[in-house]
Design a protein that fits this description.
- Strands 1, 2, 3, 4, 5, 6 and 7 form a seven-stranded antiparallel sheet that branches. The protein has a two-stranded antiparallel ribbon with strand order 8-9.
- The protein folds into two domains: about 70 residues, no CATH class; about 45 residues, no CATH class.
- It is mainly β.
- The two termini are about 10 Å apart.
- It is built from no helices and nine strands.
- It is about 0% helix and about 35% strand.
- A hairpin with a 7-residue loop joins strand 3 and strand 4.
- About 15% of the residues are buried.
Length: about 120
């Protein structure tokens, strides 16, 4: 995350910072990246695609970003859909019982059904 800007993020794959390849297009502002759209396009190279401002953009390692316009920072107003907390012994995931939004709601183990009540966001700080 860029200092002081909660929703400005760099995208990484392990230790590698990925940059958006914009070719000859000059960026007038920071693009808005759909974080859920990031998809790896090769099993041997660090190449990805994603959707930013309604268009597809290729993501490549920053160290390969030469000869074209690029960005390494993105406005990402939404987090990924969420993380699932799966118990390694039971294989079940944490779920908010009956999708409650009340204070003190029970959190239980349940079979993974992909529901929103089984997705969590990790906040740091």
């Amino acid at each position: 995350m860029a200092s002081g800007q909660r929703y400005v993020q760099a995208i990484t794959y392990g230790p590698v910072v990925l940059s958006g390849n914009y070719g000859s297009t000059t960026l007038g502002s920071l693009p808005s990246l759909n974080v859920d759209s990031i998809s790896r396009t090769s099993s041997t190279a660090l190449t990805f695609t994603a959707s930013a401002n309604g268009s597809t953009v290729n993501l490549i390692p920053f160290y390969d970003a030469h000869g074209h316009n690029y960005t390494v920072y993105w406005y990402a107003s939404t987090a990924p859909s969420g993380y699932v907390n799966r118990n390694r012994y039971s294989g079940k995931v944490l779920e908010v019982y009956q999708r409650s939004t009340a204070d003190g709601a029970a959190v239980v183990q349940w079979t993974d059904n992909g529901g929103a009540d089984q997705q969590w966001t990790m906040l740091i700080g």
